[in-house]
Amino acid sequence: xxxxxxxxxxxxxxxxxxxxxxxxxxxxxxxxxxxxxxxxxxxxxxxxxxxxxxxxxxxxxxxxxxxxxxxxxxxxxxxxxxxxxxxxxxxxxxxxxxxxxxxxxxxxxxxxxxxxxxxxxxxxxxxxxxxxxxxxxxxxxxx
Length: 143
Description:
2 domains, mainly alpha, 78% helix
């Protein structure tokens, strides 16, 4: 009798876990890792570490290394665009975000890239404004 109760509880527990995982997956899709390659994932983590500490040159070098391995990875291009935006290289940020958009079908990433471009455009100083406008016009066909 005791075994039947335990096995019945075990079955109920397994059923609850399965149902809970189905509900979670259906309501909130899992975000894919930035890469299937462990080295690239580690480099991105390191680049984010440097970026958080405002060591932008180191972050950019690491992301460029990752891009040599996966030049078609839109999320890597986005990460590099973010570094350049934070560094104040607005024209580079716009170019890399545009490259990211060209490589992806992910609407969430495209939206992030558009926001990045808008942020770069709004931060352009009067000395770099003409350069930023040229890049935006070339990339997006608008001033």
